[in-house]
Amino acid sequence: MNQKHDVQVRNFSVLLSPTPRGARLARLLAAEQLRSWQLPLDPAALIVAELANNAATHGRVPGRNFRLLLYVVGDTLRIEVTDTRGDQPPHPPHATPVGEAGRGLLLVTALADRWGVNRGLPPRKTVWAELTIPAPESPEPGAPRFGPTCAPYEPPTEEKAPHQAPPLPPAPQTHPRE
Fold it and tell me: Is the pLDDT of residue 94 over 80?
């Protein structure tokens, strides 16, 4: 007997320029999308920031964009960043304690449940990371609830009289001299 599984699939995809501005925009757009899906921002926003920064820095080819893809299937969030430098696979470097760079993939390794690289059609490669989304906690009875604090907007049902300006003060009168 066939059983239907109610699995919700959500996705978001955008092409961005391989620049620092494009990497920043990837992080901001991902954070906004995660908010709209009511998913936690951390550590997903950090992973997006690192992968997008790597695409803009190491995967940059002038005139070619990188793609950010977020999708959720069941309890898994998958983050993919595709660039056009398939000839340079990412590798976690040996960061020095005083170095200013070289920790991006170490952060991804520490924060993601799984991550890897897929080679696409040349010259593409996709660096991906997956996170298991925690199940939402059910509120305790009597506990404060978070959500909208205002009543929904209802347009007025009666017509308003047109707004009239106050009357002008009387004009000063001048009297002819006699």
Answer: no
* Dihedral, 120, 17, 90, 118 alpha carbons, nearest 10: -20
Measured in degrees and rounded to the nearest 5, phi and psi for residue 14 equal -150, 145
Could you tell me if 31 and 46 are in contact, meaning their C-beta atoms sit under 8 angstroms apart? no
131-176 pLDDT, tens digit per residue, is 999 876 665 666 655 555 555 666 666 665 566 666 666 666 665 6
Tell me how far apart the alpha carbons of residues 129 and 80 are, in angstroms, rounded to a whole number.
Answer: 7
Nearest CA-CA partner of 114 in 89, 80, 85, 145? 80
Instruction: Pull the structure tokens for residue 139.
Output: 């509120």
What is the DSSP secondary structure assignment for residue 98, as one 8-state letter?
T
